[in-house]
């Protein structure tokens, strides 16, 4: 398995302003965990929450592979991430005070509401019986499974029209595991040598499905950038898609798991 990832801020923003996150955990050549998250821009510290969320869901899935197969276990991992956020936030507030930049009055309401993010996590394992994969998601970050130059599976959304301005989100202060579990979607499947998987945050995912619906093969273009790692070229290509009205100007993150 070859895993690569690219992360680009929306046009006009710098990389530190990007509120998307990706995390890849390669245990060995035959076992990989990958996660992407998209922080909601209306919340404060959304990018930091997205980053923490991807790390915690991968670590939880490493401890228990059922996390990405079972909605309740995945929701439990989200709660654990939220508990870790409490500690992270306390440290952040202390650093601000030590730097002489205490939390301003206008920041307090957003801090109290907590950051929000979508999240998608997946596990890929090579076993004696073949290659298996599992994924869990809350929100509209998507996974695409490609084989023989065709799209086999889109998860959790299957059409470009399914995207909306109000996707499911994980709030850092939400400890209601049952409520979270009701919004989690899971999927499992098998894969073959030569297959490819793309984990994408919403703007890129919507473009991907729209391109498929137009009869295009978006994995070809996308795969060229992920394999080469050409971040500048990728950013220019995204800018062109936005200029043509084919993609919304937003932060973009992709993780490519190539079984070739």
TrEMBL record:
SUPFAM superfamilies: PP2C-like (SSF81606). It comes from the Bacteria. This is PPM-type phosphatase domain-containing protein. Residues 17-229 form the PPM-type phosphatase domain. InterPro entries: PPM-type-like_dom_sf, PPM-type_phosphatase-like_dom.
